[in-house]
UniProtKB/TrEMBL annotation:
Belongs to the peptidase M1 family. This is Aminopeptidase N. Residues 463-497 are annotated as: Disordered. InterPro entries: Aminopeptidase_N-like_N (IPR045357), Aminopeptidase_N-like_N_sf (IPR042097), Peptidase_M1 (IPR001930), Peptidase_M1_aminopeptidases (IPR050344), Peptidase_M1_dom (IPR014782), Peptidase_M4/M1_CTD_sf (IPR027268). It holds the Pfam family Peptidase_M1_N. Keywords: Aminopeptidase, Hydrolase, Metal-binding, Metalloprotease, Protease, Signal, Zinc. It comes from the Bacteria. Residues 310-455 form the Peptidase M1 membrane alanine aminopeptidase domain. It comes from Streptomyces tendae.
């Protein structure tokens, strides 16, 4: 207990202080960034979002989007104002039912000042009415909105949300979603989660999607166009909805032959990573010219270019592996990208083993031998690559190589326990490379600091383990290229955004 003593001479001053409203002194603006050193302007401080309700209308012919976003949150500090990340034109903002003033700043900041200051721990309902042409907007010199011949697509990493809904745009603030989109009859609107319903009236069809498990903002997606939808279920009973643009041309067959195996791949991955973590599954392939794929939660985005040389189930394996490593457990900061990409690439190595096209060890040996010591490949540090190298090929390949070295060090029993236990330990949350190291040490009972430092943080080629250590042989003969190598290499640009 703390007892406050006021001496008589101080009573006048104390009375004067008490006359000043506490809100005038205690409340301050929320930070315009969540604190990620890679992307200082991404996300915001002062509140935590629990749910986004997005009610949208989109006209493919003009790329015009109109929307009302209702954001449910709770303040984490005393706020005089707060920011959302957003690019479209705002017509009105209400905070807890009352009109709020707003302005814009920086590249993507929507600054909102409520009529009354907000106390820490208060429930917060923000309604934003907006409209605009997403393809006309840029931030930091680029756009994350992809115009297609029959509509538009929101899919990118580390950002895409600001082009279609206001948000706290960083993986640290996950939320659930309801996305309702009105489009002209004959056009489809694809999003995450389960399709709750569709209804048509006066030439327009409304598509209602729900994601009822926490989801990072960059993993939310919207795709509007003319799609062919297929449905099914996995052996485990998860509903699958896939969508293919009706204008994929020569890539159509290969895309379907790959993405239609989504349920099979998810069931197979669950043997390594634990039960599939969400209640919906699928993928979509729009008619876009971009070349990458993305693990948008429950429904990955694939570029047609991924299937230009034929079917490629390996890229489906990569994006579905992210449902555990990246979506269920997300990065604490963007420097922790190795936990996403190293393990998604390693899943491709395991699939190669499953298909009899080269073991994970053979792929590791070939990767190691393919890059001489003076190759720039080794200067990229997967454990903290920097924003300029966040999606460099070395984060994927050197990242997967580090996973195999870890496997060899701790043995298969501990390794596969880690592989399955990690998503369960941090389910629906965020974690760092340091967290992963501690968890692997806890499970294996081995000190791993030197291994992690050597393979993830040193900008040089590590020495190969001693001869006979079942890893990265020093034998002079170059390893034979595994049969799956070219297929896996074809996915090297999956995140070359």
């Amino acid at each position: 207990m703390h007892r406050r003593i006021i001496v008589p001479g101080a009573l006048g001053a104390a009375s004067l202080m008490l006359a000043i409203p506490a809100s005038a002194a205690a409340h301050s603006p929320g930070a315009p960034g969540i604190g990620d050193p890679y992307y200082p302007a991404y996300g915001n401080g002062g509140y935590d979002v629990s749910h986004y309700d997005l009610r949208l209308k989109y006209q493919p012919a003009t790329d015009r989007l109109e929307g009302t976003a209702t954001i449910l949150a709770r303040t984490t500090e005393d706020l005089s104002r707060f920011n959302l990340d957003f690019l479209l034109d705002v017509g009105e903002v209400r905070v807890n039912g009352a009109k709020a003033s707003f302005t814009t700043s920086g590249e993507q900041e929507l600054e909102i000042t409520p009529k009354k200051p907000l106390d820490k721990g208060s429930p917060l309902t923000v309604v934003v009415r907006y409209s605009g042409v997403p393809s006309s907007k840029q931030a930091f010199g680029f756009t994350s909105w992809h115009r297609t011949p029959d509509g538009g697509i929101a899919a990118n990493e580390p950002e895409a949300a600001a082009w279609w809904f206001p948000s706290n745009d960083h993986p640290l603030d996950k939320a659930t979603y309801d996305v309702s989109v009105q489009v002209p009859d004959g056009t489809q609107a694809i999003s995450n989660g389960t399709l709750q319903s569709t209804s048509s009236r006066l030439g327009w069809t409304r598509w209602n999607w729900r994601s009822d498990q926490p989801q990072a903002t960059y993993l939310a997606t919207l795709a509007v166009g003319r799609f062919d939808l297929t449905t099914g279920t996995t052996e485990g009973g998860i509903p699958v909805v896939n969508a293919y643009s009706r204008d994929l041309g020569a890539n159509d067959g290969a895309a379907r032959a790959s993405v239609e195996r989504t349920g099979e791949v998810a069931d197979w991955l669950s043997e390594y990573f634990g039960p599939y973590p969400f209640n919906a599954l699928g993928g979509y392939v729009p008619n876009t010219t971009t070349g990458y794929a993305l693990e948008t939660q429950t429904r990955p985005f694939y570029s047609p270019r991924q299937f230009a040389n034929g079917s490629n189930v390996s890229v489906v394996v990569h994006e579905l592996a992210h449902q555990w490593y990246g979506d269920l457990v997300s990065v604490r900061g963007w420097k922790d990208i190795w936990i996403n990409e190293g393990f998604a690439r390693y899943a491709q190595w395991l699939w190669s083993e499953h298909e009899g096209e080269g073991t994970a060890q053979e792929l590791a040996d070939y990767t190691y031998a393919s890059h001489p010591a003076d190759d720039a490949f080794w200067t990229v540090k997967p454990g903290d690559p920097g924003p300029e190298n966040q999606f460099d090929g070395a984060v994927y390949d050197r990242g997967a190589l580090a996973v195999q070295v870890l496997r060899n060090e701790i043995g298969d029993d501990a390794f596969f326990t880690v592989l399955k236990g990690w998503p369960a330990k941090y389910a629906h949350g965020n974690a760092s490379v340091a967290d992963f190291q501690r968890y692997a040490e806890e499970v294996s009972g081995k000190p791993l600091a030197a291994l992690f430092d050597t393979w993830l943080f040193q900008p040089s080629k590590p020495d190969a383990p001693a001869e006979g250590a079942r890893s990265l042989s020093k034998a002079p003969a170059a390893p034979v290229q595994p049969r799956s190598w070219r297929k896996i290499a074809a996915t090297n640009d999956v995140h070359a955004h």
